[in-house]
Amino acid sequence: MISNTGSPYLTVQRLMEIPGLVHGFGTADWTLKDAVAWSGRRGFRTIVLKQVHSDIVHVIDGGNVERAAATRLPGDALVTDLPGVLLVVKTADCLPVFLVDESRRIVAAVHCGWRGTRSRIVEKTIEVLSEKYGAPPDGLLAALGPCIGRDCYEVGDDVRSAFAREGFPGPLFRERTADGPRYLFDLRAANVASLRAAGGREENIVSVASCTHCEPGLLSFRRDKDENARMASFVGFAG
Predict the structure, then answer these.
(1) 20 to 30 A Cα–Cα from 93, which one of 28, 107, 118, 152?
(2) pTM attached to this predicted model
(3) Which of 238, 239, 236 is nearest to 86 (CA)?
(4) How far is residue 65's CA from residue 46's CA, in Å, rounded to a whole number?
(5) Taking the mean position of all CA atoms in its chain, how far away is CA 143?
(6) In the structure, what pLDDT confidence band is assigned to residue 142 with cuts at 50, 70 and 90?
(7) Residues 6+ apart with CB under 8 A from 135
């Protein structure tokens, strides 16, 4: 169940039921500036990446949290077991994904553009959670936020071919027109496939079924052509 109840960010009921966990998927009315201000008022240290459409995963621990809060590390996924640390990713068509181990109180925030998805960044983040913290993939809760939908995300044959080389299922792409090789790509389904490939359970995956390109209350780079406008999604355990 998804809710916003007048809030400038969307929440997932299953995550709201976890004691101490805070989270939200930003809308057009919830930018990075809003998230940082909200975080500071609640005593969180806020971690924001310099997103580079990669498969780089950063673990935030006691040894690097101050540096990570003061600078923007290059990468596209954050993992922490530290309370009082808020992980933030920015999107405007790309897919934000949260991973939560409720019993170990571990969270991850992942920025999934097509390049990171092709490189299986969600699977690599789950590998980090498993190897560093012993988090079982089949026990993780995964929440997928708004992104550009399967009927709006047009890509070329280069993207389709890149995913085929990585072993992604062909039905993620539907041929668009006869005017050159163009396809409609299902970014959300590609990341669900990655979650399942990493051992995630279908019943532990929840999704905000909103298309950023279609819904005016969300930001879309493809629709708006604004290089700087991004929604901020956040997750963390309170201290």
Answers:
(1) 107
(2) 0.95
(3) 236
(4) 9
(5) 8
(6) very high
(7) 101, 104, 106, 129
